[in-house]
Design brief:
The structure holds two protein chains of two kinds. Chain A is α+β, with helices and mostly antiparallel strands. Chain A has a single domain, classed as 2-Layer Sandwich (Beta-Lactamase), CATH 3.30.450. Chain A contains three helices and five strands; from the N terminus they run H-E-E-H-E-E-E-H. Chain A has a five-stranded antiparallel beta sheet with strand order 2-1-5-4-3. In chain A, strand 3 and strand 4 form a beta hairpin. The radius of gyration of chain A is 14 Å and the shape is globular. The two termini of chain A are about 15 Å apart. By secondary structure, chain B is α+β, with helices and mostly antiparallel strands. Chain B has one domain: Dynein light chain 2a, cytoplasmic (Beta-Lactamase, 2-Layer Sandwich). Chain B has three helices and five strands; from the N terminus they run H-E-E-H-E-E-E-H. In chain B, strands 2-1-5-4-3 form a five-stranded antiparallel beta sheet, sandwiched between helices. Classes of the chains: A alpha+beta, B alpha+beta. Chains A and B meet through helix 2 and strand 3 of A and helix 2 and strand 3 of B.
Chain lengths: ~120, ~120
C-alpha cells in the first residue's frame, strides 16, 4: 500500500489541515495538505520530538509515544513510529477522536508502508 | 502563599506525581515531587523543545504556545507557559496516567494564574 493511500483516511478527521510523515532526523517524506513549508515543519517537529526523547531516561517514564503542542489556533500532534514520525496539524478545537483514530486505523498500515514493523 | 505551597497544591491533584516552575532558559525555579522524580531533565526540554514549539507556532501563524503534552509509556508530562510580565516561565507537571489528565488540566486551570502571579512578584 502506498504512503499516500495509507494516509488518505486521515483527511476525514475534523479540522485536519496537514499530515506529514518525516524521518527521525527531520526530513519530510510524505505530505497531505498544503499551505505550509514541509521542510521547515518537519525540522521543527523533529526538534521537539528529539527533545522529548532526550528526557526519557532521566524521567524514568519510558519512551515518548506521542506529543501534542497546543497553539492559539492550531494543534500539532506527533506520534513516534519505529523509525519515523507522523505529524498532524489540526485546527482548534481539535477532535478528541484523533489519537484513537490514529492508533486504530493508521499506525499499523503506515508502519508496513514505511517498511518497519508489521 | 509561596511558590512551594502552590506547587504542593498541584501535587495534591489526583494523578500528579511532580510539579515545577522552570525558566525559559531551562533553570528550575522550584519543584516538588512525591515519587522522587528527577526534575533535572526539564532544563533540556524547556530550552530546546519549547523553543522549537514556538517556531512551530510562528510557522503556523497560530500565536503563542498554550500547552505542550508529551505522553510517555509511564504517563504524560504537561508543559504550560505561564503568563508572566517579562521572562518566560513554564509550569511542568508529570502525571501517572492519561486517565487523570482531564481532571488535572481542569484543576490546573485554576492554579496556574496564581502560580504566575507569585512568579511575577
Amino acid at each position: 500500500m502506498t504512503l499516500q493511500r495509507t494516509l488518505r483516511p486521515l483527511l476525514t478527521l475534523e479540522g485536519l489541515r496537514m499530515v506529514l510523515v518525516l524521518t527521525r532526523d527531520g526530513l519530510p517524506i510524505e505530505m497531505l495538505g498544503h499551505g505550509l513549508r514541509a521542510e521547515v515543519l518537519a525540522a521543527e517537529v523533529a526538534a521537539v520530538a528529539e527533545a522529548a526523547r532526550n528526557c526519557y531516561r532521566t524521567l524514568g517514564l519510558g519512551m515518548p509515544r506521542h506529543h501534542r503542542v497546543t497553539l492559539e489556533e492550531h494543534e500539532v500532534v506527533t506520534v513516534a513510529l519505529e523509525n519515523h514520525y507522523l505529524t498532524l496539524v489540526l485546527g482548534i478545537p481539535s477532535s478528541p477522536e484523533v489519537l484513537p483514530f490514529l492508533y486504530q486505523n493508521t499506525l499499523q498500515p503506515l508502519e508496513v508502508a514505511l517498511g518497519g514493523r508489521s | 502563599m509561596s511558590l512551594v505551597d502552590l506547587l504542593n497544591q498541584v501535587l495534591d491533584i489526583k494523578g500528579v506525581t511532580s510539579a515545577a516552575v522552570v525558566s525559559g532558559e531551562g533553570f528550575i525555579v522550584e519543584g516538588v515531587s512525591n515519587q522522587g522524580i528527577d526534575l533535572g531533565f526539564l532544563g533540556g526540554f524547556i530550552a530546546s523543545g519549547l523553543a522549537s514549539s514556538q517556531v512551530l507556532a510562528d510557522l503556523l501563524g497560530g500565536g503563542e504556545v498554550r500547552q505542550a503534552m508529551i505522553e510517555y509509556e509511564g504517563g504524560p508530562v504537561l508543559l504550560t507557559p505561564l503568563e508572566t510580565d517579562e521572562a518566560q516561565y513554564v509550569a511542568v507537571v508529570t502525571l501517572d496516567s492519561t486517565n487523570t489528565l482531564g481532571r488535572a488540566r481542569f484543576q490546573l486551570r485554576k492554579l496556574l494564574p496564581e502560580i504566575a502571579q507569585v512568579v511575577n512578584a
